[in-house]
């Protein structure tokens, strides 16, 4: 969005509606979340590829975050701490020109044992989602969703 040259006054009739932008973002994030869940109900996560670069992302994630345990609940405070943000930023920038919407906001389950819900969901960047969900899928931690849908 361009507001014009520096120092120019903002014409409220030409400014975008930020509330509408937030609603559009929320709709897109929810669509991503529901689409991913629907895919996990139709295919075991352990058989799913989220990107063409899953192998590279997975290996890079294990190197960059060796302490991360995909089975455990994500510590959102640590993830969003100053140090956590720096580590994730460095990780994500590797994919700036490789993965579309790498830094787009999305919803991520804090723990793979639970469905999306108000208390079980955190806001994350798309590359965080990919890295964590690829790791969970590789370990079969999302296969229960398929099994539940087919019992």
List the defining traits of the structure above.
globular; mainly alpha; 151 residues; single chain; 2 strands; 7% strand; 6 helices
Order of helices and strands: HHHHEEHH
Spatial gap, N to C terminus: 49 Å
What profile does the largest beta sheet have? 2 strands, antiparallel
The helix content, as a percent range, equals: 40-55%
The structural class is mainly alpha
Q: Tell how many strands the DSSP assignment holds.
A: 2
Determine the oligomeric state from the structure.
single chain
| Percentage of β-strand residues | 5-15%
If strands are numbered along the chain, what order do they take across the biggest sheet?
Answer: 1-2
Shape: globular
Descriptive report:
- The chain is mainly alpha-helical and 151 residues long.
- 48% of the residues lie in helices and 7% in strands.
- It contains 6 helices and 2 strands.
- It has helices at residues 18-42, 54-64, 76-79, 82-93, 126-138, 143-149; strands spanning 105-109, 121-125.
- Strands 1-2 form a two-stranded antiparallel ribbon.
- Helix 1 (18-42) packs across helix 6 (143-149) and helix 2 crosses helix 5 (126-138).
- It is globular, with a radius of gyration of 18 Å.
- The chain starts with 17 loop residues before the first helix and ends with a helix.
- Mean pLDDT is 89; it is low at 1-8.
């Amino acid at each position: 969005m361009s507001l014009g040259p520096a120092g120019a006054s903002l014409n409220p009739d030409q400014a975008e509606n930020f509330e509408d932008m937030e609603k559009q973002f929320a709709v897109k994030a929810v669509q991503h979340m529901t689409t991913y869940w629907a895919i996990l109900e139709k295919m075991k996560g352990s058989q799913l590829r989220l990107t063409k670069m899953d192998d590279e992302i997975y290996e890079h994630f294990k190197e960059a975050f060796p302490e991360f345990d995909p089975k455990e609940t994500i510590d959102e405070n640590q993830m969003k701490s100053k140090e956590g943000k720096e580590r994730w930023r460095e990780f994500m920038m590797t994919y700036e020109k490789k993965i579309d919407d790498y830094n787009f906001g999305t919803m991520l389950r804090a723990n793979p044992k639970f469905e999306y819900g108000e208390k079980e969901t955190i806001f994350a960047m798309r590359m965080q989602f990919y890295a964590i969900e690829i790791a969970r899928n590789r370990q079969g931690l999302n296969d229960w969703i398929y099994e539940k849908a087919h019992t």
